[in-house]
Amino acid sequence: MKPEYPKEFIELLESVVEKRPRTVINHILKHGYVTTEELKNIYGYNHPPRAVRDVRERGIPIITIMTAGSDGRKIAQYEFGSFTKEKFSKLSGRTVLSKKIKDALIKKYGSKDFIYGDQMNESELQIDHRIPFEVAGEPDTLDLDNFMLLSRSANRAKSWSCEHCQNCKAIKSKEICLSCYWAYPENYTHVAMKEIRRVDLIWQGEEVKTYEVIKNKSNKIHKEIQEVIKSILEKEVKKKKEKL
């Protein structure tokens, strides 16, 4: 028998419009729960926990229960968790303020993706927690520093990396996240706890001609364009060092 949900909770659920979390929410509303098996077989989500995470990151409690799948193996079953009246009020306010947060971020940083740095239409940008909800929960304040603007592709890349990061899975240290590329790409010491440095380059407008020159060169010497770019940069750094 499906549970009855409070009016405030339903309003919070209805405020979620993005396709993936909306799919999870609709299924649970209709059936009372959804399993990893159903998310994969019915909706084609190869990484069901990621779809569930999308719901949790919007402040909606999801509990996990282990159950038997169609083949008898253990699988996860997801249901809505409990809410207090105070929690409803806080998150309803957070939902209402989301557009104001987005507008403030755009005013301060411009209408651009924080990870890739490319200029985008406002409608293509999504608000994301700098530190994953699984690690820090809902921020105590609506300070702009707690949020970032991401394109859908950047959000997917961040989600995938965070899901496979040991900090998100087990350690749950906010300090580790604060020095991660996915939280502060402008100032970081690691990428999901790995000794990696990365630069995501975008060529736009007239700059595309430069990209095509590099791409043609990489095709001629049968190398990936990333290798060619790194080689060019390494030569320039070497020249600078020799001059010094």
Kindly summarize this structure in a few lines.
The chain is mainly α.
| End-to-end Cα distance | 75 Å
Gross morphology is: elongated
What is the average per-residue confidence, as pLDDT, rounded to a whole number? 87
How does the major sheet shape up? Answer: 3 strands, antiparallel
Radius of gyration: 22 Å
What is the beta-strand fraction? 5-15%
Unreliable stretches (pLDDT < 50, length at least 5) are 88-97
Question: Main sheet: which strands, in order across?
Answer: 1-3-2
Number of domains: 3
| Total number of strands | 5
Order of helices and strands: HHEHHEEHEHEHHHHH
Q: DSSP helix count? A: 11
**Which bin fits the share of residues in helices?**
40-55%
List the main descriptive attributes of the protein structure presented here:
244 residues, mainly alpha, Arc Repressor Mutant, subunit A, 3 domains, three-stranded antiparallel beta sheet, two-stranded antiparallel ribbon, 11% strand
List the helices and strands and how they pair.
Blueprint: H1 7-14, H2 19-31, E1 34-35, H3 36-41, H4 48-56, E2 62-68, E3 74-80, H5 85-109, E4 125-129, H6 133-136, E5 147-151, H7 152-163, H8 166-171, H9 174-178, H10 208-220, H11 225-243
Antiparallel strand pairs: 1-3, 2-3, 4-5
Structural features, described:
The chain has 11 helices and 5 strands, in the order ααβααββαβαβααααα. The longest helix has 25 residues, at 85-109. It is elongated. 49% of the residues lie in helices and 11% in strands. By secondary structure, the chain is mainly alpha-helical. A hairpin with a 5-residue loop joins strand 2 and strand 3. It has helices spanning 7-14, 19-31, 36-41, 48-56, 85-109, 133-136, 152-163, 166-171, 174-178, 208-220, 225-243; strands at 34-35, 62-68, 74-80, 125-129, 147-151. Mean pLDDT is 87; it is low at 88-97. Helix 1 (7-14) runs parallel beside helix 5, helix 2 packs across helix 4 (48-56) and helix 10 packs across helix 11. It has 3 domains: 7-80, Arc Repressor Mutant, subunit A (Orthogonal Bundle), CATH 1.10.10; 99-178, no CATH class; 210-243. The strands form 2 sheets. A 3-stranded antiparallel β-sheet has the order 1-3-2. A two-stranded antiparallel ribbon has the order 4-5.
